[in-house]
């Protein structure tokens, strides 16, 4: 079994652990006891919350609505649809008709880029984050 050191994706505490990987599949988690903020401990999310990695319902490609149905699309196609729709909404209803909602599962840098995009490119301060729920 291969041990892969990584950082928990669930919150900003930054706990680290080893993923126990067998034939490319995660079989378990082992807390990191050395030089870690968690000092060998993990909450239930960090210890048991990895099922999504191999879950059959996990989205692996963007989905774009066509004729009322969500269909798989390339990132280029999805970005083109997003840019076109956001541009049209901004033009017709103003920048404050758009809001951005980010995630605690993104890195600080990704969240920074999200708010920068909303403020500088869209032109609104309507920015929030799931950790405030
Ligand atoms: S193990 Fe729990 S406390 Fe630690 S980073 Fe993950 S979610 Fe946060």
TrEMBL record:
This is Molybdopterin oxidoreductase Fe4S4 domain-containing protein. Keywords: 4Fe-4S, Iron, Iron-sulfur, Metal-binding, Oxidoreductase. GO terms for molecular function: 4 iron, 4 sulfur cluster binding; metal ion binding; NADH dehydrogenase activity. Gene3D superfamilies: 3.40.50.740, ADC-like domains. InterPro entries: Mopterin_OxRdtase (IPR006656), Mopterin_OxRdtase_4Fe-4S_dom (IPR006963), MopterinOxRdtase_cofactor_BS (IPR027467), Prok_molybdopt-oxidoreductase (IPR050123). Residues 1-57 form the 4Fe-4S Mo/W bis-MGD-type domain. GO terms for biological process: respiratory electron transport chain. It comes from the Bacteria. One of its GO terms (cellular component) is membrane. Coiled coil: none annotated. It comes from Desulfobaculum bizertense DSM 18034. It holds the Pfam family Molybdopterin.
